[in-house]
Write a structure and sequence with these properties.
Blueprint: E1 7-12, H1 20-33, E2 38-42, H2 48-53, E3 65-69, E4 95-99, H3 109-112, E5 117-123, H4 126-145, E6 150-157, H5 164-177, H6 190-194, H7 207-225
Parallel strand pairs: 1-4, 1-5, 2-3, 2-4, 5-6
Helix pairs in contact: 1-7
Bound molecules: adenosine-5'-triphosphate and magnesium ion (MG).
């Protein structure tokens, strides 16, 4: 039976500050700690994921996680075999998480064309609600070249359930997007905001981590559901 190869998950957003880098790092940390070979691919110009995941010696010491800084122009070539159609065996069965450019940035295209799934990171606010369609339309274009690409879900981050505006926005998202809204939303937690201040440290304990634990399981199922062997 042919190996399914690694799954490529693009953490996407349609606007800044939606928790994309935090989500990519949290998922990489959790998948790695579950024994899944994981590559955290940092394709952002500022290298935010690297700044978070590398300790002071410049290495990522999270178990089973390799951190790779990449230029958007490289388009994942290193991970493919010579024909550019299959994955190199060394990366089989793992997960590649991409903290890349904004979905609407043309530099995201080569990566979207190599990805299996996209998670759209969102805040529960009215602006996010209005801008989700522009993120989704970027996927629509990428799918013309990569029909396997699927929107796996909307991940809500920094959620404050007692904030009425957020609670209402979250309810409206559920009405509009149904099961695409991943459960649970990731609560705002002070320690998560501090995580990048201690480079290379473990994912902080607490309510946000508990949410990421459930989301990691859910996303893994959705990501591997479509595997053709
Ligand atoms: N659950 C959370 N609770 C509290 N703070 C959080 C949480 N998730 C992320 N943050 C903080 O929110 C800020 C934005 O998050 P992050 O950098 O992950 O977003 P981003 O979408 O990658 O932003 P950018 O568009 O700049 O790349 C960061 O300071 C981060 O530490
Ligand atoms: Mg970021």
């Amino acid at each position: 039976m042919k190996s399914a190869g690694p799954r490529v998950l693009f953490l996407g957003s349609h606007k800044g500050g939606t928790g994309k880098t935090s989500a990519a790092a949290a998922l990489a940390y959790l998948y790695g700690s579950r024994g899944i070979p994981t590559i955290l691919l940092d394709v952002e110009a500022v290298g935010a994921a690297s700044l978070l995941a590398e300790d002071e010696s410049g290495y990522c010491h999270w178990p089973n996680v390799s951190l790779v800084r990449y230029s958007p122009e490289d388009a994942l070539g290193e991970f493919f075999d010579d024909s550019m159609t299959g994955w190199k065996d060394s990366h089989a069965e793992g997960i590649i998480l991409i903290d890349g450019p904004m979905l609407t940035d043309h530099k995201a295209r080569p990566m979207l064309e190599r990805s299996h799934g996209v998670i759209l990171t969102c805040l529960a606010d009215p602006l996010t609600l209005k801008t989700i369609p522009s993120g989704a339309s970027a996927l629509h274009f990428a799918r013309k070249k990569n029909p396997q690409l699927r929107l796996l879900g909307l991940m809500i981050n920094r959620f404050r359930k007692h904030d009425r505006l957020q609670a209402e926005s979250f309810r409206l998202m559920g009405d509009q997007y149904g099961k695409l809204v991943l459960q649970p939303p990731v609560p705002e937690q002070w320690e998560m905001g501090q995580w990048p201040q201690q480079p290379g440290s473990d994912l902080p304990e607490g309510t946000a981590r508990e949410a990421f634990e459930s989301l990691a399981t859910n996303i893994h199922q959705r990501l591997f559901q479509t595997v053709e062997v």
